[in-house]
Amino acid sequence: MKKYDIAIIGGGVLGNTISYWLSVLYDLKICVIDKENDVAIHASTRNSGVIHYPFYLNSKTKKNFARAAFLSHRMWKVLAEEKKIPWVQGGTIEIALDENQHKTLEKYMIWGKENGLTEDEISILDHNQIKQKEPNVNCYSGLYCAKEGSTNYSLLTHAVKELSQKNGIDFLFNHNVDHITELSDETDIIFSDKSSLTSKFVINCSGGNSLDIAKKFGLLEGYSDLHFRGEYWVANTDIANLVKTNIYTVPRYTEFPFLDPHWIKRANGETEIGPNAVPVDSPESYDSFIKDIPTVLSKITDIVTGSAKKLLLNPEFISLVSKEFHSSISKTAMVERVKRFIPKVKPENFPKRGTSGIRTPVISPNGKFVSDMIEIDGKNSFHIVNYNTPGATGAPAYSAFVIKRLQKNGILDSSIKRKNAIWDFDKII
Ligand SMILES: Cc1cc2nc3c(=O)[nH]c(=O)nc-3n(C[C@H](O)[C@H](O)[C@H](O)COP(=O)(O)OP(=O)(O)OC[C@H]3O[C@@H](n4cnc5c(N)ncnc54)[C@H](O)[C@@H]3O)c2cc1C
Question: Which protein residue has the closest C-alpha to ligand 1 atom 18?
Answer without folding.
Answer: 391
